[in-house]
Design goal:
68 residues, alpha+beta, three-stranded antiparallel sheet, two-stranded antiparallel sheet, 13% helix, flat
């Protein structure tokens, strides 16, 4: 399985320049992508990967003709 952390609902980006990526499910920040950190520690792919749902960021207001 090829896991992409950027598509996981538990992935987050930090403001820490030494540990810029994190995983809310495992509760850590790291200087490597979380799925790689999990693979290095356990020898297996991340078991908690869940694809995040993306919402539409814009809808057209039919009455006003504006983008909201």
């Amino acid at each position: 399985m090829n896991i992409v952390c950027g598509n996981c609902k538990y992935y987050f980006v930090t403001h820490d320049k030494n540990r810029p990526w994190g995983c809310n499910k495992f509760g850590f920040k790291s200087n490597t992508i979380p799925c790689q950190e999990v693979k290095n520690a356990s020898g297996t792919d991340c078991a908690y990967y869940e694809k995040k749902s993306f919402k539409k960021t814009r809808e057209i207001n039919k009455h006003a003709g504006k983008i909201i």
